[in-house]
Design brief:
globular, 82 residues, two-stranded antiparallel ribbon, single chain, alpha+beta
Length: 82
C-alpha cells in the first residue's frame, strides 16, 4: 500500500527566499528572477523525477512556461518582505 505525503510551506522574502529560486531548485532548472535580477541554476541537481505544471483550461498559455509563471507570481507581491 502506498502512503502519500503533501507538505506546504511559505516562501518568505523576509528570509531571503523567492518563489523563482525555490522552483528552480525543485525542478532542477535554470531560471532568471526578474525581481532581484539573479539567475538560479540547479541544472546539475539530481533526483528530480517529475516536473510538470498543471494549469486550469482558462489560464493563459504563457503560464505553462515555468519562468514566466513564477516571475508573474513575484510581481504580484508588492511588499518587499512578502
Amino acid at each position: 500500500m502506498a502512503l502519500y505525503h503533501f507538505h506546504v510551506t511559505h516562501i518568505k522574502r523576509s528570509e531571503g527566499r523567492t518563489v523563482v529560486a525555490s522552483d528552480a531548485y525543485r525542478a532542477g532548472e535554470k531560471l532568471h528572477n526578474l525581481w532581484d535580477g539573479e539567475t538560479h541554476d540547479y541544472t546539475k541537481k539530481g533526483g528530480v523525477v517529475l516536473k510538470e505544471i498543471i494549469l486550469p483550461e482558462y489560464t493563459l498559455a504563457r503560464f505553462s512556461n515555468r519562468s514566466t509563471l513564477w516571475n508573474e507570481v513575484e510581481q504580484v507581491e508588492k511588499i518587499y518582505d512578502a
